[in-house]
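User: I'm preparing a small set of examples for a lab meeting where we compare how different chains pack in three dimensions. I only have the primary sequence for this one, and I'd like the structure in token form so I can line it up with the others. Please keep the answer compact; I'll paste it straight into my notes.
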Amino acid sequence: MAEEDFNEEMLQREEDNYPFEEMTDTGMTELLMSLENISLEDQLANIGVSFHDKLFELIDEAHLDNKDVWKRANLDRKHFSKIQCDQNYHPKKKTVMALCIALHLDLEQSKDLLARADWAFSPSSKVDLIVQKAIIDKQYDMMQLNVTLFKYTNEILGV
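Assistant: Understood. Below is the structure token output for the 159-residue chain.
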């Protein structure tokens, strides 16, 4: 997709086009009903994988070196080292989105990684909509994405 087309599509994207396909009212009700039948102790005993563990699992699955990831994500070495060394580190939302781009994650994987860091894509954020669209279109060029982000929001991902 040409940059002009990509940029034009970003302008046309409205809040009502935000994809909520995976969590309908029925899906939420089913999730809550299934949680009703499980004790709190069982839920806590089966807690999901942390952001830190999931990130490094995804890096391993992609057969990437850590250096490749922090460079692709437009992060500096010290910041990435902090993420790597501190299992309880809580990254900023833009850092997680940059890592999603660097790892070439699809939309579901990106939502999952964001959720593990206590974040989510917002339908009312231009940055989130632009990053989401790039992920959907498999546009993983961080430089091009940052040009688009800066053009519409004066913000960039990474550093």
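A couple of notes for your slides: The radius of gyration is 17 Å. Confidence is low (pLDDT under 50) at residues 13-23.

User: Perfect, thanks.
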